[in-house]
Amino acid sequence: MHSNPGLRRLLTHRSARWALATIAVLVVAAIVGPWLISYGGAEQLDIVRLKNTPPSWSHWFGTDQYSRDVLSRVLSGARISLAVASLSVLFAITIGTTYGLVAGYVGGAIDGAMMRVLDGALSIPRVLLLLAVLGLWHPVPLSGLILLLGGTGWFALSRLVRAETMTARRLEYIGAAEALGASGRRILFRHLLPNVAGPIIVSATLSVGNVIALEAGLSYLGIGAQPPTPSWGSIFLDGVDFYAGNWWVVLFPGLAIVATVLAFNVLGDALRDALDPRQLHSHRVPSGPSATSTSVNELLKNG
Amino acid sequence: MAETNAPLLRVHDLRTYFYTDGGVARAVDGVSFEIAAGETVGLVGESGCGKSVTALSLLRLIRPPGRIEPGSEIEFDGKNLVTIDEAAMRAVRGARISMVFQEPMSALNPVFTVGDQIAEVVRVHHAGSKREAWDRAVAMLDTVGIPAPAQRAHEYPHQLSGGMRQRIVIAMALVMNPALVIADEPTTALDVTIQAQILELLRSLQTKFGTSILLITHDLGVVAESVSRVIVMYGGEVVEEAAVAELFARAHHPYTEGLLHAMPQVGQERERLATIPGTVPPPTAWPAGCRFHDRCPYAWERCVAEHPPLYQIGAGHVSRCHLADEPERRAQKHEPLVVAAGSSS
Amino acid sequence: MRRTLAARLLQSVVVVFIVTTITFFVVRLAPGDPFSYDSTAITPAVRAHWRAQFGYDQPLGVQYVKYLASVAHGQFGYSFERHEPVVAALRETLPNTLLLAGLALGASFLLGVVVGVVQATHRGRWFDRVSSGLLLTLYSLPDFWGALMMLLLFSYWWRLLPAGGAVDPVMHDYLPAGRALLDRISHLVLPATSLTLLTTAAVARYQRSAMLDALPADYVRTARAKGVPERGVVWCHALRTALTPMVVLLGLLLPALLGGTVFVEKVFSWPGIGYLAVSAINARDYDVVTATVVVGSVLVVIGNLLADLLHAAIDPRLRA
Question: Which of B45, B66, B218 sits opposite A299 (nearest CB)?
Fold first, then answer.
């Protein structure tokens, strides 16, 4: 299949290997971590002596104002944040791909109307919309949060899918249909999927990082994951009143988020380079600073 | 080859190598030739032979990972263009030696007017104020045969046809009255009818301004009409050089023979176009002996082992082929090695 | 050209209409209403009276039409938290957001373009690698966290800059004009810088990519062949064509920029529409919530229109 040479190319990228490793570590830590640490994420320890302690050997990330071990909270939060992000992105891909396929395949006035609605949706700043919905429907259960995050994140992807669908459809009309008989619709999918799978995977990877950061932000505002569910954002919520003194409550969870999002961004960049080496689309999304070796022929193309 | 006066341009042992991950590509590997004032010389060869790289080297437009090897000499205006500093080279580019590129659409910047782009050459060489440069640009447009030049100067490249764009490119090249114009496949991207016009334009401008022209092409038909002398390149080297009539009548090198043979002729009765079997070897791995030997219908053991020098064939006619030394071998024609090996790819 | 402009304007109006509709229904369909909060002093009769007075007892369709009518008249409803018409609240806060976001947008584009160009011309060398890594890391910071860290660093640990607000709450009115301006600027620095940092990364990456596309172009080689100095080749010929995709990026960035503004305004208590929105959420101030979302979207639509105009101005191929 197409992705194998792509995967191989991906793994030659040093940064991609690092990113994959980080994500792997994270996932493992999220699954296994809370069992290894002797303190639970929600457990309140000695509420007098262990309140607001800075990082130490027994508490690597310190404790917060409720005497909870910050490291444990970060680890438990990892589970929630990763799960929420992955599920919502999955949801977004499903909606986006479907919407794009339908719009691109059907065309005409329906496509026009669908695109107008999409324009409208794209014009609404995602944060404001989420703010409105999550704030007014407060408190929103985790499932609702996932649906909303997914439901607001598929617009750009559907545009991409639509463009590819329309290209493939044109191919069908031009000659493929005649040459290959009545399997027009099958051609559509067999030509479409390889072309579209790459950008979808890249988009998904980048989105996961994006959603993790977004979810953290929403939790910080109090409208994301609700207590006692610890997500990375809500850790801040608890520390926010005292952060001047409790810098470790802000720093360490933040670093965890940054590292995770960075890993997904690097991975996404590397995937983009690996899966789509000769980008012919005019509306390119930026590629990262990866070094691509120039071919001799390219250099000498003028003979 | 040398005129009684000093030649305008003298290239000696030009080597331009590209240092890539795949190896060192010796795109131009020891090329020497001269161009006299007012002369039109044709540089012929197929893709990959190094002719465009030669042209770019003359203007020192080679970017890393390519470089012109030390020891190369490009004598012009009493200087060696390979060693002068960048500021001096910039003064040469566009003003003393200029270039006409192959694709007129992509050679012009789409966001600037054509007038601006021509005037820019004048301004960059400090040869006039903004107003003066503009006037010169309009005058140049007229010279190259653009109707209503004053209005056209305000237009953008995408508003003009292919033939007109190429005229613009020529105007840019000639506005500073250079001594040498390098035309790199100036007609390849154009329709046949426009091709003739452009070639005619170049000829008339040459007569008018006394410019020398180095015409680079793969099309021998173009060469036949426009130049006085032909240099044939293959494998990064000069393989034959002769006056145009001499070349067409008595081509010596098997590669040139092949090119002539491959030219479709009106009135010819043939079902398939003749081609030279095989392809150019990669510039990272030139063969040790003659670089054409695997595609040559006359090659023998000496050709595989010994790299041929440029033999003198006649007055002003050289050929890099051992047949000059052993002409009786010409009778022993055979299948070229690539065909015998079973692949004609 | 004028025809396309008119078409785009019409398109934009349609988009705003769609946005308003979506927002209205999203907000009004939420459980409860502005009068749902618990208080022993409020009897059901009082609640019913209020509902009737403000039209919350009518069917949703009727409410929608009435809302559209009032929006057409420039009325966005009433803010129960601030005890003033929403329009007044917007008038107080919108300029602050425009100032902050506008400044950040301008600064990030300036910085991003320069960095992107330098990265592209020095591709693979240390500046490119280091700055790319740095920018990617900045890009990966959650909006609110970046702002929080800036606050921590520059307001708490090193007491260089004020911790929040647009002006000094106590002293500002008593300061002479020069000091008052300085006061405003000092309050602007941290929020603007936070917001700029977040956006610069995206701009630089995009510009780098656009330049890498433009630099090998044939017309760049032509410019060199004409004798144009390298400086002119890069910053004049190559950049000019590489700016076109940047204008497209501008349109795409706006929603994200406004999103970031919400967080930055919250962290720094900057009195803009983001701050307004956040406090309105907690107080269930429905009309304010609707209005902020609509206004935010309108800003995006206007921004896109301006970007399109800019695009045509930059690229003559679009003007025909």
Answer: B66
- Test C15 with A250 for CB contact under 8 angstroms: no
Number of domains chain C contains: 2
**Buried b or exposed e, range C212-241, using 16+ CB within 10 angstroms:** bbbbebbbbbbbbbbbbeeebbbeebbbbb
Task: For residues C163 and C288, state if they share a domain.
Answer: yes
Tens digit of each residue's pLDDT (9 = 90 or more) over B266-321: 666 666 667 788 888 888 888 889 999 888 888 888 889 999 999 998 888 999 99
- Contact yes or no for A283/C170 (Cβ under 8 A): no
Task: Report H helices in A172-246.
Answer: 177-180, 184-220, 232-239
In this structure, the answer to whether residues C156 and C13 fall within a common structural domain is: no
C188/C206 same-domain check: yes
The enclosing domain of C282 has a CATH number of: 1.10.3720.10
Best residue in B20, B24, B31, B218 for a mutation probing chain A (most A CBs within 10 Å):
B20
- Closest residue to B18, CB basis, from A293, A299, A303: A299
> Which ranges of A107-154 does DSSP label H, i.e. alpha helix?
108-123, 126-136, 142-151
Rounded Cα distance between B225 and A94, Å, is 64
Q: Which of C85, C112, C130 is the last residue of a domain?
A: C85
Neighbour tally for C276: CB within 10 Å = 29
What ipTM was predicted for this assembly? Answer: 0.85
Q: What is the pLDDT of residues B131-160, one digit of tens each?
A: 999 999 999 999 998 999 999 999 999 999
Q: Is the dihedral of CA C88, C93, C96, C100 positive or negative?
A: negative
State the Cα–Cα distance between residues C246 and C206, nearest whole angstrom.
7
Integer Cα distance of A89 and A107 in angstroms: 26
Cα separations in angstroms, A186 against A15, A158, A159, A168: 38, 20, 22, 11
Q: Which of residues 191 through 250 in chain B touch A, CB cutoff 8 A?
A: 218
Enumerate neighbours of C (3 or more CB pairs within 8 A): A, B
Could you report the per-residue pLDDT of C264-316, keeping only the tens digit for each? 999 898 999 999 998 888 777 888 888 888 899 889 989 888 888 888 888 88
Residues C77 and C120 in one domain: no
Which candidate, B113, B225, B240, places its Cα nearest to that of B171?
A: B113
How large is the C-alpha radius of gyration of chain C? 24
Which is nearest to B15 in space by CA: B237, B263, B178, B336? B237
Can you point out the beta strands (E) in chain C? 78-79, 84-85
Look up the domain containing C22 and give its range.
2-85
Which of A14, A119, A122, A128 to probe the C interface (max C CBs under 10 A)?
A128
How many residues in chain A?
A: 303
**Residue C320 scores a pLDDT above 70:** no
Three-class DSSP category at A120: helix
A200-213: burial string, b at 16+ Cβ within 10 Å, e else: bbbbbbbbbbbbbb
Same-domain check for residues C21 and C168: no
Residue C275's alpha-carbon distances to A131, A241, B95, B211, C296, in angstroms, are 11, 18, 62, 71, 12
The 3 state secondary structure assigned to C274-319 is HHHHHHHHHHCCHHHHHHHHHHHHHHHHHHHHHHHHHHHHHCHHHC
Rounded distance between C-alpha atoms, residue C120 and residue B274, angstroms? 46
Last residue of a domain, one of C85, C108, C132: C85
Q: List chain B residues with CB under 8 Å of A12.
A: none
**Does residue C5 carry a pLDDT above 80?**
no
| Partner-chain contact C222 B108, CB within 8 Å | yes
**Dihedral (CA of A36, A40, A46, A51) sign:** positive
**Do residue C146 and residue C291 come from a single domain?**
yes
Q: Which of A230, A75, A223 is nearest to A149 (CA)?
A: A223
Whether residue C66 is found in the same domain as residue C124? no
Query: Residue B98 forms beta bridges with which residues?
Result: B181
